[in-house]
Structures are given as structure tokens and as C-alpha cells.
TrEMBL record:
<dbReference type="InterPro" id="IPR020084">
    <property type="entry name" value="NUDIX_hydrolase_CS"/>
</dbReference>
<keyword id="KW-0378">Hydrolase</keyword>
<dbReference type="GO" id="GO:0046872">
    <property type="term" value="F:metal ion binding"/>
</dbReference>
<dbReference type="InterPro" id="IPR015797">
    <property type="entry name" value="NUDIX_hydrolase-like_dom_sf"/>
</dbReference>
<keyword id="KW-0479">Metal-binding</keyword>
<dbReference type="InterPro" id="IPR000086">
    <property type="entry name" value="NUDIX_hydrolase_dom"/>
</dbReference>
<keyword id="KW-0464">Manganese</keyword>
<feature type="domain" description="Nudix hydrolase">
    <location>
        <begin position="21"/>
        <end position="159"/>
    </location>
</feature>
<protein>
    <submittedName>
        <fullName>NUDIX domain-containing protein</fullName>
    </submittedName>
</protein>
<dbReference type="Pfam" id="PF00293">
    <property type="entry name" value="NUDIX"/>
</dbReference>
<dbReference type="GO" id="GO:0010945">
    <property type="term" value="F:coenzyme A diphosphatase activity"/>
</dbReference>
<dbReference type="InterPro" id="IPR045121">
    <property type="entry name" value="CoAse"/>
</dbReference>
<keyword id="KW-0460">Magnesium</keyword>
Length: 207
């Protein structure tokens, strides 16, 4: 392979993340309640294997040949029992990578003609739903706590091949974890992080 051939391969290529395990779409539903914007959250079913009873947005794995938008709408319809024609996407929010090396793509949108009593939620995945006024998040900052991880490294890892390799054995990764408390609900972790980022964008646009 020659240099000019390599140039042709890369000249119009757009960068993307690599070594990602899975790709997930998350729908962030902004709904009208009494003519005021609310965010809609769901409490995961206690029978779920991952994060039972915790609070999340609708979402799930992006299937092959499926766009981020299509996955977000499909998961919302499956979990909340709404007609896909009523799910409208406003746009994409900032994406992020979780601690499991999964790429998360949040999508902001709405459910038209929203009535919480008319939702036919999938009880296998969702225990119940609730809404929080957007003003609550605009007027209340989340609590922030640091969480640290230390790598679980096998004894066979070749630190001896790395200059000053012994210094890597004690390294930790620290990142902020956000908590919102509304009524009796605790919104934390990834869901709180997505919420906080949305609020930051709204505040920034109003300045």
C-alpha cells in the first residue's frame, strides 16, 4: 500500500469512537403537564436483572441497521406503550461513555397529547412513571459526590515491559456522580448526568 492510497482512504473519513462494546439510545421525554414542561421518568421493574427499582429514561440497545432516533422511538414505544406517531424527536443531546465502555446517545423529544393515565407501560420493564417540572431542575442544582475505581489487574499483566510500570498499579479513576431528589424519588447516576447536561444547555442558551 502506498501513501497516496492511504490518503484516499482517510481524506473524507469522519472520526468516531473505537473499542466500544455496545451502543444505546436513550429518549429524554419533555412532556406538557398543566401547560408546563416536565421531564418524564420511569421506575424500572423490580424483576429487571440490571438496576431493578432504579430511575431511568426509556432506552435500550441500538439494533443493526437502526438509527439513534429509530432506536430511541422504538424503545419508548415498547416501554411506555405509546403510539410511535406521538413520539417526536427534537434533536440529539451530547453523547457519553459509561463505565462499561458502552456508548450512550441521549435524544430529546416529546410525547404529543401526553396523558400519564393513558400510558400502557410494559410491566416487565417498568414499574411506574412520574414527571418532574423542568423548573425544578433549573432552580435546584444536583448534589455531587466523587466515586473512584481502582483497576483489577491480573498478575500476568506485563508491567515490567512499561517504563515505571509499577506506578500504574496504584492508579485510580475518579469521576463525579450526580443526585437529584424530588418528592420521594432519587434520580442519580447516568440519568442524573443526562438531566444535568440538558439543563446546562438550556441555561447556556438563555444567557
Amino acid at each position: 500500500m502506498k501513501t497516496n492510497q492511504i490518503h484516499e482512504i482517510f481524506k473524507n473519513r469522519k472520526s468516531e469512537m473505537f473499542d466500544i462494546k455496545r451502543h444505546y439510545a436513550v429518549f429524554v421525554p419533555l412532556v406538557d403537564v398543566d401547560d408546563k414542561p416536565h421531564l418524564l421518568y420511569q421506575v424500572r421493574s423490580n424483576t429487571m436483572k440490571r438496576q431493578p427499582g432504579e430511575i431511568s429514561f426509556p432506552g435500550g440497545k441500538i439494533e443493526k441497521c437502526e438509527s439513534i432516533k429509530e432506536a430511541a422511538i422504538r424503545e419508548t414505544c415498547e416501554e411506555l406503550g405509546v403510539d410511535s406517531k406521538k413520539v417526536k424527536v427534537f434533536g440529539e443531546l451530547d453523547y457519553l461513555i459509561n463505565t462499561f465502555n458502552d456508548m450512550i446517545y441521549p435524544v430529546l423529544g416529546t410525547i404529543e397529547d401526553f396523558n400519564i393515565e393513558e400510558l400502557k407501560i410494559n410491566k416487565c420493564e417498568v414499574d411506574r412513571v412520574f414527571t418532574v417540572p423542568l423548573d425544578y431542575f433549573l432552580n435546584n442544582k444536583p448534589e455531587v459526590y466523587d466515586m473512584s475505581y481502582r483497576a483489577d489487574i491480573s498478575e500476568e499483566f506485563p508491567f515490567h515491559k512499561i517504563k515505571n510500570g509499577e506506578s500504574y498499579q496504584q492508579r485510580t479513576m475518579t469521576y463525579p456522580v450526580y443526585f437529584y431528589e424530588y418528592d420521594k424519588f432519587i434520580i442519580w447516576g447516568l440519568t442524573a448526568k443526562i438531566t444535568r447536561n440538558l439543563v446546562k444547555e438550556l441555561v447556556k442558551s438563555c444567557k
